[in-house]
Amino acid sequence: MKITIQASGVLKEQIPTEVPVEASTVGEAVAQYDLSAAGDVLLLVNGRMAHWNTALEDGDALKLVPAIGGGASAEVQLQ
Q: What predicted TM-score, i.e. pTM, was given to this entire model?
């Protein structure tokens, strides 16, 4: 299937523009890029949450969004 990958945030460094790829699942599409240093990534197909084994169809748009981390440090004591 021919789909388009869109990356956001720091993932644009590995996938700078909308890129057409051939893949039948989300996992196959993502495996074409070395995103091992990217950490957790949210996967969206046509705006809906997806998983590695989500099937793709011609014309689908796969968006990769870096997960946001943060919050209070373990040293912070809540009162």
A: 0.78
Res. 79 pLDDT band, cuts 50 70 90? very low
SS3 73: coil
Tell me how far apart the alpha carbons of residues 70 and 1 are, in angstroms, rounded to a whole number. 37
Two tokens, residue 1: 């299937």
Please give the biggest Cα pair distance in the chain.
54
Distance CA 29, CA 64 (A): 11
For the chain, count helices (H), then strands (E): 1, 5
Task: Determine the Cα–Cα distance for residues 44 and 54; give it in Å rounded to an integer.
Answer: 10
